[in-house]
Amino acid sequence: MAQIQVRQNESIDSALKRFKKALEQSGILQEYKRHTHYEKPSERRRRQKMRRRKK
Hints:
Order of helices and strands: HHH
Radius of gyration: 17 Å
Number of helices: 3
Mean pLDDT: 89
Number of domains: 1
Shape: elongated
Number of strands: 0
Largest sheet: none
Helix content: 55-70%
């Protein structure tokens, strides 16, 4: 679970920006996106193949 401490005199916007960055770095956002919709095994293999091709 990603957490941040809101500093004194810090605006909500900057705290939210830090929180979103913490979510991205921890991988929670990617995990959420992957589980929101069902992905067929063939689609998963195709996506992994494309990812390997890019590297």
